[in-house]
Design goal:
Keywords: Hydrolase, Protease, Thiol protease, Ubl conjugation pathway
Protein name: Ubiquitin carboxyl-terminal hydrolase
Shape: globular
Radius of gyration: 21 Å
Domain UCH catalytic: 5-237
InterPro entries: Peptidase_C12_UCH, Ubiquitinyl_hydrolase_UCH37, UCH_C
Catalytic activity: Thiol-dependent hydrolysis of ester, thioester, amide, peptide and isopeptide bonds formed by the C-terminal Gly of ubiquitin (a 76-residue protein attached to proteins as an intracellular targeting signal)
Strand order of the largest sheet: 1-7-2-4-5-6-3
Oligomer: single chain
Largest sheet: 7 strands, antiparallel
Number of helices: 12
Distance between the termini: 41 Å
């Protein structure tokens, strides 16, 4: 784990929820979206924004080399006059938290807490690059961000430089962006782009929920039918607090259990299990022939394919 830099964190509702709570944000949580449709968003409303994770590959690099044009939508170079908060990413691995902050700082009615409220006031008037630098240099934000990254004893120092015309399927390059509606527009906030990206008019929460799935589906469609590595998180109000307000005991128990699971998983992320896994593999390998290993691998691949097929089928319902 880097001591002075930023580390990668998982695209996980529990991670992002505890992260913003540690930063002092009140009454906000993140929820996984397993289907890109309006009904899924309606079930979680009100929606403050959506975080989109995708594989940053050949197509993205091509557009980056073409004056960094957006793949979809149009730039808003007047975003400051339009009162859009936008931070560019100036350091590796910070895109998750920067995407979250871009959404939160553009949402009205959110209690950011003292630290983030002071931070937002401090950077107001800065250009996007300077805001990104200020986020990157914030010890508080970086420390909390890194507290959700998994330690690892493995460092890939021999990885060759990538040919920009290649799209390595396993290079691990993923990127987070945020979607919000503000000032009568739907905005995509991508820290690697020059400006916020406009995706048309939007006058209400209802219209945002109706239009956003089509915008994201069009973006996904540009990567081809064989690309399935996407993740969506909705930024919502705290569902536990909402259940408490109406006295729904069953929902309170369900939400409390969900948060217990989140916390347990986040605690597990703090540990490095590499040594344990290696030792287990050593022990297993002593008892298996090459043919038995091959059979186990085939079963594992088949189970993975079945899980992917189930996820796709579920998203299309």
């Amino acid at each position: 784990m880097s001591e002075g830099g930023w580390n990668t964190i998982d695209s996980d509702a529990g991670v992002f929820t505890e992260l913003v709570e540690k930063l002092g944000v009140q009454n906000i949580e993140f929820n996984d979206l397993y289907s890109i449709d309006s009904s899924s968003l309606h079930s979680l409303a009100p929606i403050h924004g959506v975080i989109f994770l995708f594989k940053y590959g050949k197509l993205d690099r091509q557009f980056a080399q073409q004056d960094n044009k957006p793949i979809h939508g149009t730039y808003d170079p007047n975003y400051i006059d339009n009162q859009i908060f936008f931070a560019q990413q100036t350091i590796n691995n910070a895109c998750a938290t920067q995407a979250v902050l871009n959404v939160l700082f553009n949402s009205e009615g959110i209690d950011l807490g003292q630290e983030l409220d002071n931070f937002k006031q401090f950077v107001t008037g800065f250009d996007s690059d300077m805001i990104g630098e200020t986020i990157s240099n914030s010890d508080l934000i970086r420390t909390i961000h890194n507290s959700f990254s998994a330690p690892s004893m493995l460092v890939d120092e021999d990885k060759p430089n990538r040919n920009p015309d290649e799209d390595d399927k396993n290079d691990g390059l993923f990127h987070f962006v945020g979607y919000v509606y503000k000032q009568g527009k739907i905005y995509e906030l991508d820290g690697l782009k020059s400006y916020p990206i406009v995706h048309g008019d939007c006058g209400s929460q209802e219209e945002f929920i109706e239009k956003l799935p089509g915008i994201i589906q069009e973006r996904i469609g540009k990567y081809g039918n064989d690309e399935l590595r996407f993740s969506l998180l909705a930024v919502t109000n705290n569902k536990l607090e909402a259940a408490r307000e109406i006295g729904d005991d069953e929902e309170i128990q369900r939400q409390m259990h969900k948060r217990e699971v989140w916390h347990h998983e986040n605690e597990l992320r703090k540990h490095d299990y590499t040594g344990l896994i290696v030792q287990l593999l050593k022990n297993i390998s002593k008892e298996k022939t090459d043919e038995e290993w091959e059979e186990l691998l085939k079963k594992g691949r088949k189970q993975t394919q079945n899980l992917l097929a189930q996820r796709i089928a579920k998203s299309q319902k």
